[in-house]
Amino acid sequence: MMSNTTLGGFLPLPFDSLELPRLSIQRTATYLPARPAAGFSLIMLVIVFFWASQKTSRTATIIGFAKQRYRAWAYLFAGPGIIQHEFLKSLGKPFEVHAPDVRMVFVSSPEHIKELDRAPDTVLSLNGAAKHLLPDLSLLAHSRWEELLSTKPTVNGAISAPLYPMMINMVVLLNARSLFGEELIKNQRFMNSALGYVEETLLNAEIIKLLPKFLVPARIAEKDQRNLGQSTPQRNDCIQWIIDTAPKQNAWTAERVIYELMAIWFGSVHILSTTIVYVVHDLCLHPEYIDPIRRELEASYDEFERTGHGLPLLDSFIKESARLTPVESMSVRRCALRPFSMSDGTKLEVGEWACAPAGAINTREDYYPFPKSLSGFRFVDSALLAAIDEDTNPPAARQAKHSKLADVDHSFLMWGTGRMACPGRFYSAAFMKIIVAQLLMNYDFTLANPEAPRWISWRVTKIPRPWTKLVFTSRK
């Protein structure tokens, strides 16, 4: 049976075993041959050597290009493993990874990450919540869990159901309530479109990345026709809504429209639903954490609803799960709009990407004690843990400094870094706590098959397998 590490692991590259012939020519003192025949022979020898060296150079170029393209396409299916492999080889220095459509330079040291953050937006570009909502979201999450599970077959009081599709449904509903209001979430047609948009964007974005560049001018020509007053196909979708409501005097670029759209909807649904799925998986795989978190919820959930703060045990467990199973293995993406050089001489050409290997950084031994082991309460204040009954509190590796899920740090890049850190991270952290808390307070749950692979890899993303089932039993 294939394990998760195999799925996300580094594919063997057969080109690495190829040895190229090397031709070494010793330079000697220049001399004039004594005989014409000897001179002719020497000239022919030089020509043969030159031809052979050129042929070897061409062969090396072809094989080198083939190796690079093989790795680039392998990246689509084994991105996290390839990044981890190159990270371990780099020993903290910048390293490059090729995708079929772009060259990416990864940096992992705090100094280099700060360089990316300090670079002007005109050179490296990120673009080329409210606590009064929490009680409403809690009630909505509670009723939605009941509604979703009521449609599944029950055997001996237990319900077996795939988690990932339900989680997407749950996150779409709650997120739409926060972003679009009470009325629109009652419109089933709107909700179907909202969910379909996220799923179709995931698929279509990957297809578009692999399409040839010559298709771009057709879309540009359509825009030019529209600017000249000519009729063009009418668009009636979320993208058009953003365009129509954008400032008229300082019109947004296409890149800005795309950024707004993704930031508002796609990212909030895809990242949140996937992160929560892995949190629930980890609770199933480490059930010793469930009772302490439930006791915390019984004592403090009402206060959390009022303030949006608190629940440090649940907060830490979500952060630890996200550390070990990040949705994406890279962060701090920056696209070079102009040539850019780092302090160590690493260069980026226009169109290339600088990023940080977030997944690999999450398992650095100098950042995390026992970095590859899940320790659900590693981020909790030691004084708080000491006040909890040690007999019922699972042992945990400890960080030298406690931290929260929404904190930004160079050792935990889930939210980005510096001035471009995700501004919605506080809302997202509270949102995830609500969904997981409602599940914990109302249901017992286990993985139907704990040994089965739980995700598939595409580029740097770990996508939950939609057919992975959980068994739910009501606690009522």
From TrEMBL:
Chief location of this protein? membrane
**What keywords would UniProt list here?**
Heme, Iron, Membrane, Metal-binding, Monooxygenase, Oxidoreductase, Transmembrane, Transmembrane helix
Q: Which residues does the annotation say bind heme?
A: 422
Q: Iron: present as a keyword of the record?
A: yes
The record's GO molecular-function terms, alphabetically, read: heme binding; iron ion binding; monooxygenase activity; oxidoreductase activity, acting on paired donors, with incorporation or reduction of molecular oxygen
CDD domains, per the entry = CYP503A1-like (cd11041)
Pfam families the UniProt entry points to: p450
Family matches, as InterPro entries: Cyt_P450 (IPR001128), Cyt_P450_E_grp-IV (IPR002403), Cyt_P450_sf (IPR036396)
The transmembrane residues are 33-52, 257-280
Q: Which cofactor does it need?
A: heme
- Location in or out of the cell: Membrane
This entry carries the following GO cellular component terms, namely:
membrane
Q: Respond yes or no to whether keyword Oxidoreductase is given for this record.
A: yes
The record's comment on protein family reads:
Belongs to the cytochrome P450 family.
Q: Which PANTHER family match?
A: CYTOCHROME P450, P450, PUTATIVE (EUROFUNG)-RELATED
What protein does this entry describe? Cytochrome P450
**Which organism does this record belong to?**
Clonostachys chloroleuca
